[in-house]
UniProtKB/TrEMBL annotation:
It comes from the Eukaryota. One of its GO terms (molecular function) is catechol oxidase activity. This is Polyphenol oxidase C-terminal domain-containing protein. Residues 3-78 form the Polyphenol oxidase C-terminal domain. It comes from Digitaria exilis. InterPro entries: Polyphenol_oxidase_C. Pfam families: PPO1_KFDV (PF12143).
Length: 88
């Protein structure tokens, strides 16, 4: 099964479902397709998204904390570790 989720920054969880590429809060999408190595299943992996531009557009580049909302679009997602933001 394919899995897809979008990432929204600094918007309420209830509003995040409606956030898309036309919105400043939209940070991007991630899609995982079935793997032949997992007999059609998915493998665990790490996702790195660069959100510097989104933070700058929101005026949040210097903020100590931001809200990161993962919005499932296809399939189920499981987050094993809290998202972190690191300055490059």
């Amino acid at each position: 099964m394919d899995n897809k989720f979008d990432v929204a920054i600094n918007c309420p969880k209830e509003v995040a479902k409606g956030v898309g590429p036309q919105h400043t809060e939209y940070a991007g999408s991630f899609t995982a397709v079935p793997s032949s190595k997992a007999n059609g299943g998915t493998l665990l992996g790490k996702v790195t998204l660069f959100v510097d531009g989104v933070l700058a557009d929101l005026g949040a580049a210097g903020d100590a904390t931001v809200d990161v909302v993962l919005v499932p679009r296809v399939g189920d997602i499981t987050v094993y570790f809290a998202p972190t933001i690191q300055n490059a």
